[in-house]
Amino acid sequence: MKKHRYIYGLMTVFLSALLLMGCEKDFLDINEDPNNPTSVPVSQLLSSAQVNMAECFGNGTDGLSGHAGTVMHHFVQRGAINDYGLTGGDFPIVVSWTSLYAGALTDLNIVIEQGTVEEKWANVGVAQILKAYILSTMVDVWGDIPFSEANLGSENIAPAYDDGASVYASLFPMIDEGIANVNKGGSPNGDLFSTDWIQVANSLKLKLYNNIRLVQNVTADVNSLITADGFLANDGSNDLELDYGSSFAPENRNPGYVQEWSAGGAFFYIDPYFFEIMRGQDSFGHGGIDFGIQDPRIPYYFFNQLPSSSTDGDAENPCAYCPSDAGTSFLSIYSYSFNIDPNEGFDQGRSQTVAGLYPLGGRYDDGEGGIASNASTLLEGQVSGNPTIPHRLLNYYEVLFIRAELAEAGVSTVDQDARTLLGMAIDASFAKVNEYAAIAGAPAISNADRDAYRVAVLAAYDAGDGMEVIMTQKWIASYGNSLVSYADYRRTGFPRLHNGNTDALSVTVQTRDFPVSFPYDTDNLALNPNAPSQRIIALDKVFWDN
Hints:
There is one protein chain. The two termini are about 40 Å apart. By secondary structure, the chain is mainly alpha-helical. Helices cover about 45% and strands about 5% of the residues. The chain has a domain at about 40-190 and about 520-545: Alpha Horseshoe (Serine Threonine Protein Phosphatase 5, Tetratricopeptide repeat).
């Protein structure tokens, strides 16, 4: 378990240090700005970039994982996005696009340049690996992006957009250079992830090869990586994830927790489709896969504000998806119901089920209920969560699911069989939940419950479409890091998603097709004369989506 807790206040300290540096300058020296030194320590730049990327790919106000989670039916919310209505003016899209280029990528480029001069090779290597992670994720989300002409400052304020395939092709040598630099020795200064960067780099390469397997023969590369077996450790100790703290001032809690555990009500509802797949039921004719067993991770995934004995009448207002539908005190709304559901105008902030312990640091559901609150002082009836829970970026269980997919698809020929790897991935995903349970002081999932679940899933694998079972299980495990599932679905067609026009509900109508990419930031398109036209998100695929 990583021991550090990153601090948002780091930037406050950093700025204070810069001001102190300025005080040492001659007050009348007009040739240098004392508050903007030409050189910043690579350690602080690396920390800043890591915080920035986790924020942009996370579940907070400006995180892309929330949007991805909505289109992948982890979450659901009111508004056009209830029916795949993403726009280039959506706050997470605008802020993430701008922050990644102006923040994380700019900082990492300086770390690479300045660290090379200073021969701080570990920092240089880590920056190259993180840069590859960020750029690959941006291609996975947006397709073509500025790359070769990006982050050049005043030298080029209107960068052209590079084809996603050419960006991806540049990332593999970038990762290899990162590995070579990390291997030169030393530890990266300012590293908030505290991981084994060689393991991260190898795992990232495997992930990228898997993404492009439909458009490029990667068998030799994949087999070479698997034979070397240098992936993330099987105890999860080196998973790429950013730990958080519990401080209110300065704010250093998980941003997803801060957003979703507002006493005024969560931003996201939990999609009933996701809940019912995990519970093994189909109350509204969604037609999803049934593993024949209730998932033991449910109380770690979802927190019911209503106590376990609640009925529909206990909700603060008339409900859409109610306890009588769920068979528990779970309460939510349906996807594809915007401007249709007659109950959508009713506030359910104190009744709706919210994201629990596992995805973003909520609370383990012990059945007692309570009003979810992130306030420093709780009022009567309010309960708090566990804001120190990390945001996951790349994990051991994800690598196992990737290997299972590659084996199932016949791409890897030197690995274990897909069924064995699937079983290992399920065990690893349960271990991650138990790791977070230990942080929160919550009970662990028993080995017996885990084993019974694995047996049921493997039976479904034996009886049905192996790829669907693998990808559905990965979708369940990836809750809270929905960008992973968003890429998986476009590559494999799984998990099978809820269709608002074929269910048995009168309050759902699906009017838009699934978005195969995200729209570009509208502001950027308006300001950059070299930008392409806005993406038609239902048609404009990323290059590897075949």
